[in-house]
Amino acid sequence: MADEPMYDEWIADRRAxxxxxELTDRVMAAVEExxxxxxxxxxxxxxxxxxxxxxxxxxxxxxLVGSLPFxxxxxxxxxxxx
Amino acid sequence: MASxxxxxxxxxxxxxxxxxxxxxxxxxxxxxxxxxxxYAARFLLPLLCIIAAFAQPTNGVLLGLILVPGAATVxxxxxxxxxxxxxxxxxxxxxxxxxYNRASLYWLLVAMQLAYPVALTWVAREYVYEPFLIxxxxxxxxxxxxxxxxxxxxxxxxxxxxxxxVVVFRTPASEVGRTWIKRVIGVAGDRIVIKGREIxxxxxxxxxxxxxxxxxxxxxxxxxxxxxxxxxxxRRYRVLFADDSIDGSAVDEIxxxxxxxxxxxxxxxxxxxxxxxxxxxxxxxDVIGYVDYMYxxxxxxxxxxxYRD
Lengths: 82, 309
Hints:
B: alpha+beta
């Protein structure tokens, strides 16, 4: 690859390019935003971890949603009639 | 690949993830191989039931092929959260985060596993088998009210329904119910003559032979009347009459030639069925498919399995 003139030309062109002044700011802002989002998840999980009712509610909601496919199949198979 | 970052594994979160989708709680706890195995099992087991239905095995084998994957799916669904909870508890607060420990991956896996049964059922219902619940006794003594049947939607053996096939079809808009189940008595070009209880197809009378009462003892609760074996086009099936007179129901004499691309259908409960005697022949385009299985029979489980006359 490195011997190919087109590639050499492209890499020389890339090396000559000047990064914009805001590039560092943009990178740092993206990293910060990612951290904030991640922290939001962690904060929510931490807060739920401290509350027994919240943990129960989360697990029961998950059980309900997770069992929906079983109910759906039973309904389609005409085993559950509403 | 593990990173240097550590994080606590919440057991309740592992439990909730596993309730939502088997195996994802394990992935959250770093057990990717076991997690993917449990996850894949939930995908593959329902497929086994469909593959089993294609093979048309004996009733015993069929029951096994439905019960084993069904039971395994439920066991996996129950085992997965308990195991994930225990693993998360053992992992403690110093769990080293892996590359795949990402919330986006968990939710993607959960969404796929929740959507899968809907997609699989839709495809199976649309193109392979459609389940139906029989609400009436118009096909007694072969199909009782409360029977659940699987209708094969693949093309008919010769492209069109044949005499003696039991088919499910869309009813004309003026009739009650969206679909009916009946037996094909005549196909395109056949001349059907019905006088009282006597049926003649292309000049040949359908012969009947009385069935001993003992042979229908198990379904006697739903089958009131006289049962006969009727022979037609090499098939032998049971039909039911309210009494043993020869006059039959009050329908006028029928003398019809079945039009092109149509079939003449009748209920096996000859005195309690609304069928082609009343609404005329059915267009083959309205036929949904033919009955292959009785997967949840009413009255007795001895009727479970591949439907045969």
